[in-house]
Amino acid sequence: MRPEYLAFLCLALAGCGSLGGLRSEKPAVAPAPSTESVQAAQLASYITGLQQLVQGSPAEQAEIVAAAHAAYDQAHQGPAALRYGLVLAAPSHPARDPVQAQRVLRETLARPELLNIVERALAVVELQRVDAELRIATENERLVGEAQRERDRQRAAPSLTALNRRLQAEQEENARLKKALDEARAKLDAIVNIELERSAPTRSNPERPPSSEGRNP
Questions:
Q1: What is the per-residue pLDDT for 9?
Q2: What per-residue confidence (pLDDT) applies to 87?
Q3: Of 8, 16, 171, 213, which is the most exposed, with the fewest CB atoms less than 10 Å away?
Q4: Sign of the CA dihedral 146, 148, 149, 150?
Q5: Averaged over 66-90, what is the pLDDT?
């Protein structure tokens, strides 16, 4: 066997061995994502969506709200409800509704088994924030109402004082008129008594027949 052929054969065998080795190697399989990485990706999805909602144009905001609402209409629980509650609670967009957000988030937490641990924590934190916001708003409304009522009382106070002065003046006038009336009655009674005294002798001596003195029999 010639040396050239022997060298060629060796190279061929070596190449076949290499190909066989390549065929026997199993393709690398990507490792399954861990629970932590999945939860982190979900949290990032929620945060990114809220950022787009807050910073987006009115048209983009309306689109995000409509998509979240549509998903919520299909499933009033789980991640869809959480996402819609977060959208309603987010600031700086026309569809913001803290009262509705509070209701949806409570509805979400009524089925905690449908959320992972990160979603449950996010729902609890956001619900507590919305609860605090609504309590502050209610307290502010109460304080504003009290301040308005106090201003109304202060504005009405001068009128009430004037009314009291007028009432007092009328009472004093009535007392003066009553006193004058009593004095007039007293004077009238005195006049009547004087007249009665003057006429008393006439009543006590009845009219006598005319005297016959100076007449001739």
A1: 38
A2: 96
A3: 213
A4: positive
A5: 94
Q: What is the pLDDT of residues 147-164, one digit of tens each?
A: 888 888 877 766 777 778
Name residues whose C-beta falls within 8 Å of residue 147's C-beta, 6 or more positions apart in sequence. Answer: none
Q: What is the pTM of this model?
A: 0.56
pLDDT confidence tier of residue 28, bands split at 50, 70 and 90: low
% of the chain beyond a pLDDT of 90: 42
* Residues 85/108, Cβ–Cβ less than 8 Å: yes
- Summary mean pLDDT of the chain: 79
Alpha-carbon span 39 to 35, nearest angstrom:
6
- As a three-state string, the secondary structure of the chain is CCHHHHHHHHHHHHHHHHHHHHHHCCCCCCCCCCHHHHHHHHHHHHHHHHHHHHHCCHHHHHHHHHHHHHHHHHCCCHHHHHHHHHHHHCCCCCCCCHHHHHHHHHHHHCCHHHCCHHHHHHHHHHHHHHHHHHHHHHHHHHHHHHHHHHHHHHHHHHHHHHHHHHHHHHHHHHHHHHHHHHHHHHHHHHHHHHHHHHHHHHHHCCCCCCCCCCCCC
Residue extents of the structural domains in the chain:
47-142
Dihedral over alpha carbons 175, 180, 184, 187 (to 10 degrees):
110
